[in-house]
Design brief:
heterodimer
Chain lengths: 241, 156
């Protein structure tokens, strides 16, 4: 789900472009996925150490070979979404949980930071394999998304209040407000409708809570295996029909 | 059309756990495919509901197999499904999903056209447009959506 999470507009029909970086390889979910037996034989079966994300791992492994991944939007599956907030949060907590395992599996020890560079599949990363000349001791992965920046500003606000740092407080407040606007504006820009404002606000709040479930799931999953993992959050432009 | 279909055998693998009702909808959608699956393998991950009965109901209309996988885990169960499949193409979907009738035909075509294609993924749309607030949020936030456009009406 990692690439799908980061995308602001989804895949185009056709061959999916591959990446040097494991975490932003093209991936498909097992809700709607077909694989050639011949290709599957080359890359071995689903990794039983993942309770979720086994499809992410499979797709990454296939993307690393010469086999192509192809998106056919006319092959349609209709999925029944979770009906309660508790179930939804549980689902996303679960999604995050095994991503650190996948990261660790496909990368040597390093610090990798992902940041957005353009719309669509516009993400890039920088990797540090050494620190002060020594090999990097841990697996650390950080995605920089508006959600994270929003929360960093919030932490700075609290910090500056406690430490009574007026200028930092001003800076953090402004940053936080801009971040809040940016985080929420997506729910309004694509389909602006004054009647839908309350819906938009509720959806923004739901997305915010959902992101927390996802990030916490991934962070805790990472801690269990000695990985520091700050998960990406949903960047897809929503629409209010 | 028939010679094209005979070249590749398609196995559909569905892993299920305690969703007998939803699974029935999934299996019904497999009976309505314009390009029928050559076999359907349902892997029951130790359900305690009437999953087995539901699967047996489809024996007449699908080349369907029921496999009980007691060891918990979607990955384990999917692997069991793979090991029990005979197809050239193995297709996965879930027990909370329903397939449009052109699903398999559209999934198969890229494999037929290009031998370098190893995996084909399709679009995942919401099952309905109205529901609980949470469901409607999921729909609005394009959850599970793969592609850039809504479902294309025209077919190849």
């Amino acid at each position: 789900m990692i690439t799908n999470i980061l995308l602001t507009k989804g895949y185009e029909r056709g061959y999916l472009p591959k990446s040097d970086s494991a975490m932003i390889q093209p991936i498909f979910a097992t809700a709607n996925l077909a694989i050639r037996k011949e290709a599957l034989d080359e890359i071995s079966l689903f990794d039983i150490n993942c309770n979720t994300g086994e499809d992410v791992d499979l797709s990454i492994r296939l993307a690393k070979t010469n086999w192509e991944l192809y998106f056919e939007p006319r092959a349609v599956i209709r999925h029944k979404h979770r009906t309660t907030l508790f179930e939804l949060l549980k689902q996303w907590f679960g999604y995050g949980r095994y991503h650190p395992y996948i990261f660790k599996k496909h990368n040597p020890k390093c610090l990798e930071i992902y940041y957005p560079i353009a719309k669509g599949i516009g993400w890039s990363s920088i990797r540090f394999f050494t620190i002060f000349g020594l090999p990097f001791p841990l697996h650390i992965l950080v995605f920089v998304t508006p959600f994270h920046i929003l929360n960093i500003f919030f932490i700075l606000i609290i910090f500056s209040i406690i430490m009574k740092l007026y200028w930092l407080l001003m800076f953090s407040l402004i940053g936080w407000l801009i971040g809040l606007l940016y985080f929420n504006i997506r729910f309004f820009v694509s389909n602006f409708n004054p009647k839908k404002i309350w819906r938009g606000i509720i959806y923004s709040v739901l997305r915010y809570i959902l992101n927390w479930a996802y990030v916490i799931g991934a962070f805790l999953g990472g801690l269990k295996i000695g990985v520091i993992y700050i998960e990406a959050t949903r960047e897809r432009n929503p629409s209010i029909e | 059309m028939n010679t094209v279909n005979n070249r590749l055998k398609i196995s559909v693998v569905v892993v299920t756990f305690n969703r007998a009702g939803m699974l029935e909808d999934t299996l019904i959608s497999l009976t309505r495919q314009t390009r029928p699956p050559d076999e359907v393998v349902v892997v029951d991950n130790n359900s305690t509901d009437h999953t087995r009965e539901i699967v047996m109901k489809f024996k007449e209309v699908l080349n369907i197999r029921y496999i009980l996988e007691r060891r918990k885990g979607a990955a384990i169960a999917r692997n069991t499904g793979i090991e029990n499949s005979l197809g050239d193409i193995i297709v996965f979907t879930d027990d909370d999903c329903v397939a449009d009738k052109e699903w398999l035909r559209c999934l198969e075509l890229p494999f037929l056209r290009d031998p370098t294609i190893g995996m084909v993924g399709g679009e995942i749309l919401p099952h309905k447009t109205k529901g609980t607030l949470v469901e409607e949020y999921c729909i609005a936030d394009a959850m599970m959506r793969v592609g850039v456009n809504p479902k294309e009406e025209s077919l190849p």
